[in-house]
Write a structure and sequence with these properties.
19 strands; three-stranded mixed β-sheet; alpha/beta; single chain; 11% helix; globular
Length: 283
């Protein structure tokens, strides 16, 4: 079944947005129920990617979710796919008929449309350049993944352009203007698999951490990325960096031990999260 989106009536959606807004959750058939939110999500934070915990994990970029307290940051994390051959299509916010609506992420054989949002670490706004499946094994692009000294079976190196955008939504004022390509439309019509139970626990865990809400952290969540789902404390947890544009690669200081993608600063690979893709990614 395709990953269709169903919207609840506008009047009810608007009422819920002010009364008891909540994060949109996958429903049976992989449809998404949209709640109208009239406040735009914050910009993507800048953060570094934790070292991969082991072979077989795939990066899920962080994102702003909505809860009773407003927008809160769900840290980027390494997740295990529910089956061999599946890739992650991130969720995204889109402006539609006067409100922001969440389109949930999903697993599928190809990466579909995710709003042109540059989540970094291989998710440059279109497709995924962080790795690929090869004969039942996942091959990692070292240029956008923080492999460190962890042994993984297949690794390759392919440069990925680093963007500087930290835009977190599609359409509307100041949103991306990207439209789905034919390939992305086709991917959207494939059989999809919902986020795993652990992925949902990760989101719910973030919602229970007061400091993750933008009203508290002002766009700089204290936990921006984790080495594994729900691991919000301990070794490998990454905070968000000051919100400035990453330095050019040549101007950056030498990498620390276990070098990996830089903090993500936008769509792309591993630079600091928040709009790019390189060793360090934003968010």
């Amino acid at each position: 079944m395709s990953n269709s989106r169903r919207l609840i009536p506008a009047a009810l959606a608007a009422a819920l947005a002010f009364a008891a807004p909540f994060t949109l959750l996958p429903t049976a058939g992989y449809a998404q129920i949209g709640v109208s939110i009239t406040v735009a999500p914050p910009a993507l934070p800048i953060y570094a990617q934790p070292i991969i915990p082991g072979d077989g994990y795939i990066w899920q970029p962080g994102y702003w979710a909505w809860g009773p307290g407003g927008y809160y940051w769900v840290p980027g994390t390494w997740v295990l796919p529910p089956a061999v051959g599946l890739l992650w299509t991130p969720g995204y916010w889109a402006w539609l008929n006067g409100s922001y609506v969440w389109h949930g992420g999903y697993w599928g054989p190809h990466v579909g449309f995710y709003g042109g949002i540059n989540y970094g670490f291989g998710y440059t706004g279109s497709g995924y350049s962080g790795g690929r499946w090869d004969n039942g094994h996942f091959s990692y692009n070292r240029s956008v993944n923080n492999i460190g000294h962890v042994h993984v079976t297949n690794v390759y190196s392919q440069p990925v352009a680093h963007g500087a955008s930290r835009v977190s939504f599609n359409g509307g004022t100041h949103g991306t203007r990207t439209q789905p390509s034919d390939a992305e439309r086709s991917a959207g019509n494939e059989q999809h698999t919902n986020p795993t139970a652990l992925q949902m626990q990760h989101e719910h865990g973030a919602a229970g951490r007061h400091a993750q809400f933008s009203s508290v952290n002002h766009g700089r969540p204290p936990v921006a990325a984790t080495p594994r789902p729900t691991a919000f404390t301990g070794r490998g947890v990454m905070g968000s960096a000051p919100q400035h544009r990453p330095q050019p690669a040549a101007a950056r200081p030498a990498p620390a031990p276990h070098p990996g993608p830089a903090p993500h600063g936008g769509p792309g690979g591993g630079h600091p999260q928040g709009g790019g893709g390189g060793r360090d990614e934003h968010h």
